[in-house]
Design goal:
Elements lengths: L2 E4 L7 H12 L5 E6 L2 H14 L3 E5 L4 E6 L8
Parallel strand pairs: 1-2
Antiparallel strand pairs: 2-4, 3-4
Helix pairs in contact: 1-2
Amino acid sequence: MPITVEARGLACPRPRQMTITAIHSAKQGDVIVVLVDTVAGRDSVIRLLKAFQLPYKLKKKAKHYEIQITREKLWLEK
């Protein structure tokens, strides 16, 4: 079952902070779904995922964005 980060209605940098927390608490292979409703929140989370070098899929829904992340080993983890 995926880990859901409900960040709709929250201003930056909160969606990014919540995503970082979810990534650190997830195990390798887990799926994290981040829900944001602003372009700024979407872009902030995507920049974070690129920095962490994590694969993601972006889906635009009617009133929000869904970012699906597959938790892999981070480059900074040994």
